């Protein structure tokens, strides 16, 4: 179905740029695939947020590929006002301070990381566009400008997105302090600063130690502080009566432990909610007893096949429910009215997962609904509780037609040692059909039906590697590849998070070994199922995924006919030693205390790291290879790519090489995304072809 847009709310029309609501019904697939730009251009509409009382809607939007600006709509009158825009910058993060005032920072979407010299700054403005004030400078040269208010903070202050009570003019910003010349070293500690958005006055919160993180309570008061010294993480609690700090727990910051937990949020009644495995395999949502300093024995939310991750949903002083991620994002509602509302909206929009966002304080009939699916990029609509009608707001990737997109499903295969391996399978349109979002934990979100033929396939390996690679949703990378006729397989190899402690820890010290075997085993499963043509498979990935691409070509040369590595690690020892030409942003504490356990000790495990180094095995790679790097990358600096390119090119004439001078660890500029994926399309066409 589609959402009707009242004329006053039709932001695109008001700004002379049509923003059409997407049709959720399937459409006939035309012969020509969608152009590259439809997948990789910046979206005109990118975010929306209700005011705390639910009477106003703030929207970030650009017009005709111009600058992103901030718009506020009065939902009672449909009056619209552009409240913040810059001639040379884009609005980035924004949030409501209270019902009358917003805070925002900025970026410049026309330049890459290598050309960026300014910080995001911070600004505040009333919802009617009045009382605009700069709170944080975007660069240090502005500090010398006498026309700028004296109490504007230096550029190294950044907005804290935890919103608190939203009933004062104050917000919090963090102020990281770094080691090294020009403050380019590790962060030693992070100060928390309370900032008044009207006067610009600020006050630094007393910290109990070398703070690395902070958590506000439901009223917006600093309540937890995370301190890390060497490898030990200590959770400190600020007593609301005495305002004194006391410790709650200490454990290894990198490998955890039996008593480890992750603070999530404080509820309206002051209850602390945490993520903990409580000695079991899966992370779950628990409460934490501040008196006994114990995690609750019984979880509040537990998922059968996934670790819990998510957030609390509150309105006023009531905990309404919990947003969580299983295969897709969903919500468990404790409030009966919200549970009934979810059922009503799901019945109206059966083809999508629908996330209901109520205002912080009930004061209007509006809730904001985010809808998405594997075929549908995120779309925002207002739902009126009194009339039962939707009002469309806008969607990301507005040129994407859901009926032309591919179905995606979560499959589970077995590794050679019996470990279950989740993997995301996306099949080109016309070869499979998927069901709507599954919201019950542990269910597959799509069941492919119809004819599966021996397709050319791209095995897309996620980065990290110690994170979750994907969820059931629309993805530009996999959908683009599927639109060109390729099956796409994205394995959640051991070491990936989100699938239990056993799955995560099974990946420790397994770079190039069992982690690599998992990717190969998932690929062989696709061949055995008749999905993939064994003669037309390419492996690809970024960062760790780039490393796995290179090691896949080394370990399984008969399985992969080509490889695509962008911003990939090429030698594990280089992560530790670095290079004189560029400074990496990998934290030295992690390299000293975490990486030896998770990746390998550069001294004790030297033989293993040499055997699993793509750089040292470069002569064994003879398959066609596409490599791309960012010259300004501080996570995997360019020397990783250069050294490997020199080594592999000595014996392999089929190596394509591109450097994006202004880019960092990934492509921020649409022109570079379009250029890169255009190269990928041509490279795949030459080496594994399309059906």
Automatic annotation (TrEMBL):
Keywords: Hydrolase, Signal. It comes from the Bacteria. It comes from Massilia atriviolacea. Residues 1-25 form the signal peptide. InterPro entries: AB_hydrolase_fold (IPR029058), Peptidase_S9_cat (IPR001375). One of its GO terms (molecular function) is serine-type endopeptidase activity. Gene3D superfamilies: alpha/beta hydrolase. Residues 472-689 form the Peptidase S9 prolyl oligopeptidase catalytic domain. This is S9 family peptidase. One of its GO terms (biological process) is proteolysis.
């Amino acid at each position: 179905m589609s959402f009707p847009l009242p004329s006053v709310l039709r932001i695109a029309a008001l700004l002379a740029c049509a923003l059409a609501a997407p049709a959720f019904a399937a459409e006939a697939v035309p012969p020509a695939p969608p152009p590259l730009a439809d997948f990789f251009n910046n979206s005109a509409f990118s975010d929306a947020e209700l005011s705390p009382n639910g009477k106003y809607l703030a929207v970030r939007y650009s017009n005709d590929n111009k600058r992103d600006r901030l718009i506020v709509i009065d939902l009672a009158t449909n009056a619209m006002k552009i409240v913040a825009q810059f001639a040379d910058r884009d609005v980035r993060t924004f949030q409501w301070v209270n019902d009358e005032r917003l805070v925002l920072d900025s970026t410049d979407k026309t330049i890459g990381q290598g050309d960026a010299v300014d910080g995001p700054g911070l600004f505040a403005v009333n919802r009617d566009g009045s009382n605009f004030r700069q709170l944080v400078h975007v660069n240090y040269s502005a500090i010398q400008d006498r026309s700028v208010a004296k109490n504007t903070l230096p550029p190294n202050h950044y907005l804290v997105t935890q919103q608190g009570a939203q009933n004062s003019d104050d917000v919090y910003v963090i102020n990281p302090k770094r080691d090294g010349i020009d403050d380019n070293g590790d962060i030693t500690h992070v100060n928390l600063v309370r900032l008044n958005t009207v006067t610009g006055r600020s006050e630094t919160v007393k910290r109990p130690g070398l703070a690395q993180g902070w958590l506000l309570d439901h009223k917006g008061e600093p309540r937890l502080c995370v301190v890390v010294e060497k490898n030990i993480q200590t959770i400190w609690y600020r007593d609301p009566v005495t305002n004194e700090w006391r410790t709650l727990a200490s454990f290894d910051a990198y490998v955890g432990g039996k008593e480890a937990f992750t603070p999530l949020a404080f509820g309206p009644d002051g209850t602390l909610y945490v993520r903990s495995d409580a000695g079991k395999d899966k992370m779950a949502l628990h409460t934490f007893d501040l008196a006994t300093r114990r995690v609750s024995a019984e979880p509040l939310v537990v998922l059968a096949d996934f670790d819990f991750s998510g957030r609390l949903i509150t309105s006023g002083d009531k905990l309404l429910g919990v947003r969580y991620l299983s295969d897709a994002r969903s919500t468990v509602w404790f409030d009966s009215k919200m549970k009934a509302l979810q059922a009503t909206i799901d019945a109206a929009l059966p083809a999508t997962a629908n996330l209901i966002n109520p205002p912080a304080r009930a004061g209007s009939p509006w809730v904001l609904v985010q809808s998405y699916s594997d075929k549908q990029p995120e779309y925002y609509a207002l739902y009126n509780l009194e009339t039962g009608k939707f009002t469309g707001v806008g969607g990301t990737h507005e040129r994407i037609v859901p009926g032309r997109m591919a179905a995606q499903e979560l499959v589970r295969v077995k590794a050679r040692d019996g470990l279950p391996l989740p993997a995301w399978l996306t099949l080109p349109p016309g070869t499979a059909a998927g069901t709507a979002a599954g919201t019950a934990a542990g269910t597959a979100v799509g069941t492919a039906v119809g004819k599966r033929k021996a397709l050319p396939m791209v095995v897309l390996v996620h980065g990290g590697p110690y994170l979750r690679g994907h969820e059931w949703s629309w993805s530009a990378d996999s959908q683009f590849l599927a639109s060109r006729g390729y099956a796409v397989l994205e394995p959640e190899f051991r070491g990936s998070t989100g699938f239990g402690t056993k799955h995560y820890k099974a990946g420790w010290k397994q770079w190039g070994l069992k982690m690599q075997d998992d990717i190969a085993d998932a690929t062989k499963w696709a061949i055995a199922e008749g999905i993939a043509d064994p003669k037309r498979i390419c492996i690809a990935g970024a960062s760790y995924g780039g490393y796995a691409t290179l090691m896949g070509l080394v370990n399984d040369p008969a399985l992969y006919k080509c490889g695509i590595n962008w911003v990939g690690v090429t030698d594990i020892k280089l992560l530790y030693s670095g290079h004189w030409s560029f400074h990496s942003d990998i934290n030295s504490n992690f390299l000293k205390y975490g990486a030896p356990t998770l990746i390998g000790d550069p001294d004790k495990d030297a033989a293993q790291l040499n055997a699993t180094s793509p750089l040292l095995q470069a002569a064994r790679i003879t398959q066609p290879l596409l490599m791309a790097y960012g010259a300004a990358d501080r996570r995997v600096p360019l020397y990783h790519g250069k050294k490997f390119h020199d080594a592999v090119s000595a014996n392999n004439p089929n190596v394509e090489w591109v450097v994006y001078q202004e880019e960092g660890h990934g492509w921020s500029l649409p022109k570079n995304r379009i250029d890169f994926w255009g190269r990928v399309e041509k490279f795949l066409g030459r080496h594994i072809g399309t059906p």
